[in-house]
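Priority: medium. Attachment 1 of 2:
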């Protein structure tokens, strides 16, 4: 058993060294461009859907009486459809043959303490990271680390950038788009926290902490700022709507809820299968 553990440790160290060498030999801007292009395959269809004539017409119509039952229902229908759309694309482009080798390398490296000097409280309370002497952490812990890297470090930051660069027809269109984008981000956070919330918690966080926060400008542009003022409710991104805000939507649309939960689980399995 001891020999087997030493062999596992050797294999992990060798792969870590090889992945580090691969990354260090790459041009930084080229790396960012390759990953950005891959992420855009997931995001662009959502941005296009928010730019259609029908979406713009609905935005204008909803703005006349935003609190009416028909306006609320319209926004909910849009949100449900577009959440499914982005999850479908996340599922499709996390299949192994669709993922750039560069991202596969980055995903493996994200498991290591050396790449996570700081982490969100939610993650740091539920898992340790690989170090040079770590044999193995659990599958769910690995999934939690790599999906935090994929969703919150890459996908959401690129989604925000794309939404800020959109061409809006008017303020109604812009407000509706921002509502949808922020709501989808909130749902991704809820899916993530629900999936991993039952993991056993450590006595102390496994690394230093940081907190992401949503910031919205007067022009309704979205940005994420990072600080050390930690939200004890363990939000991955403070300022997004929590589960309570979506209770009615989820309770009244159980088939949709089940579908997005299953898709989210499939995305995590896709990511984990490439390690």
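Attachment 2 of 2:
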């Amino acid at each position: 058993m001891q020999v087997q553990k030493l062999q596992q440790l050797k294999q992990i160290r060798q792969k870590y060294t090889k992945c580090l060498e691969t990354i260090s030999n790459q041009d930084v801007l080229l790396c960012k461009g390759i990953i950005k292009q891959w992420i855009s395959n997931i995001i662009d269809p959502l941005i296009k859907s928010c730019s259609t004539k029908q979406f713009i017409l609905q935005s204008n119509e909803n703005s006349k009486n935003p609190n009416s039952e028909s306006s609320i229902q319209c926004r909910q229908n849009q949100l449900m459809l577009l959440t499914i759309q982005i999850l479908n694309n996340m599922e499709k482009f996390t299949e192994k043959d669709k993922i750039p080798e560069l991202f596969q390398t980055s995903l493996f490296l994200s498991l290591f303490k050396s790449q996570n000097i700081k982490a969100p409280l939610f993650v740091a309370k539920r898992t340790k990271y690989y170090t040079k002497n770590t044999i193995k952490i659990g599958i769910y812990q690995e999934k939690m680390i790599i999906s935090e890297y994929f969703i919150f470090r890459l996908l959401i930051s690129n989604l925000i950038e794309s939404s800020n660069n959109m061409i809006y027809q008017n303020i109604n269109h812009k407000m509706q788009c921002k509502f949808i984008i922020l709501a989808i981000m909130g749902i991704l956070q809820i899916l993530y926290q629900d999936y991993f919330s039952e993991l056993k918690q450590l006595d102390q966080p496994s690394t230093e902490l940081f907190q992401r926060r949503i910031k919205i400008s007067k022009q309704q542009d979205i940005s994420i700022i990072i600080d050390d003022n930690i939200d004890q409710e363990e939000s991955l991104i403070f300022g997004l709507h929590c589960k309570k805000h979506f209770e009615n939507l989820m309770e009244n649309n159980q088939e949709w809820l089940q579908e997005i939960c299953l898709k989210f689980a499939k995305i995590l399995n896709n990511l984990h299968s490439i390690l």
